[in-house]
Structure formats: structure tokens, C-alpha cells
Write a structure and sequence with these properties.
The protein has 155 residues and is an alpha+beta fold. The protein has a single domain, classed as 2,3-Dihydroxybiphenyl 1,2-Dioxygenase, domain 1 (Roll). Helix content is 16%, strand content 36%. The protein has an eight-stranded mixed β-sheet. A two-stranded antiparallel ribbon has the order 1-2. Strand 5 and strand 6 form a beta hairpin. The longest helix is centred in the N-terminal third of the chain and has 10 residues.
Amino acid sequence: MHAGRAYTGATDKTGAKHPMKIKLHHVNFCSTNVPALDAFYRDVLDLQPEPSLEAGRILDKDGYPGRVAFRTDGTTQFHLAEKDLDINFRTGQAINPVERGHIAFRTDDIEAFKKRLKEKGIPYSDYGAWAMRGWEQIFFHDPEGNVIEVHQVKE
């Protein structure tokens, strides 16, 4: 085992545990004018629409009803979201991911990642499947106060 690596519950034929996978997934920028921000990323950086995500949104009172434009460079997604200063009041969570935006990573083992945060004494907000159906999301701060999301897709 490598020091500092979290291992999933998955094992291979030999019984060896596999390291948890973590990969950059998206960057979220917040705005009070999503159409203008969307036009900027489309027209200046040639980012293409990412239409597959809109259908998976949770828009009810327990989800995130704000406007969002989804763009991609072909590898990384950009979620251009309406700024909402009241999300943490409605959800009871300490961290607001759509106040200033966040960077997001996808993992194959959210429970192992939560364990890693607990072991390192890093508090997090567990939103569960909040904004996107099937995405189990947690949010925490880096040492400078930037918001980081880690999520796992659970079908």
C-alpha cells in the first residue's frame, strides 16, 4: 500500500485492493447573468454545448432550481450556474457551492473519499443526490477557502 492513498472496497482476483480513482470532472462558475456568461465561453473559447446533463437536473425545492448552461472543451465540463446565496439556508448545509463556484472531481468510491477527509480532519457538506440525479455530491474547502466538489455517479 502507498502512504496517503485511499483504497476502495473493490478487489481483484488475487484479493488486492485497488486505489480509489479521482479525476477532474468540471469547473463551476457562478453568475447573476448566465446567458451572458454562456455566450462568453461559447464565443471566446469555442466551448461546445453539453446537452446530456440538463435532463438529469433536480429542479424541485430540494434541488438546485437556478439557471445552468453546460459547456465542454471535449474533456472537461464547465457548469455555468446562477449564483444563489440562499442554497445553504434551504439545504441546511454549511457550504454553498453556487455562491462563488467550485472545481469538481469524480470518484469511483465516495465513501472512501469521505473516510479520507475524516482522517485528515477536513469537514465537508454531504449534499447527497442534490443537483443532479444519481450524483452523490460532497463539498469542502481547500486551505484557501476555495470550494471543492467530489462526486460519485450511482445509477
